[in-house]
Amino acid sequence: MAAAPSNKRGFTLIELLVTLAIAAILLTVAVPNFVIFIQNNRLMNQANDFVTALSYARSEAVKRGVEITVCSRSTNTQCAGTTNWDSGFLVFVDANRDGDASLGEEILQVRGDMQGSNTLRAGASTRISYQSSGFRADPFGNEIFNLCDTRGAVNGRAITVSPQGRASVATGAGACP
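-> structure tokens emitted (177 positions)
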């Protein structure tokens, strides 16, 4: 009588080791690229968030016919008065045009800290103010903000605000802390 063929199914040890080796190689290549993807995405989102806040302030200044200011944040109701914008920023109606969120002035937006150990630094400005025309209140040339992560200026973003009030983003920041 002939032996019946074996119907056992499964993986051999060699097949399992080859599969694990291939998975390890793929993970070795994929994980660093995924980290870079996350860092680039975080920088892009933070740059877009800042430009959106500037555009919002500009449009509100035109719509309301008053001066609107964006400043580095100390608290949710006070400006920090520094070129270090890492702790976020405020958008507010600057009725008395002093560049600071005074008592009774309407706070329009509050943005929190930069995430992922990222930094946002202004070249010289502690605030950007928009007149009812949409132009900056201090039109003395471009103001450049540098948004950086731990990789440095090469991977950072430079956010430029023109005297006309338009904000734009370019890859590669000028200087990172």
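The chain has a mean pLDDT of 89.
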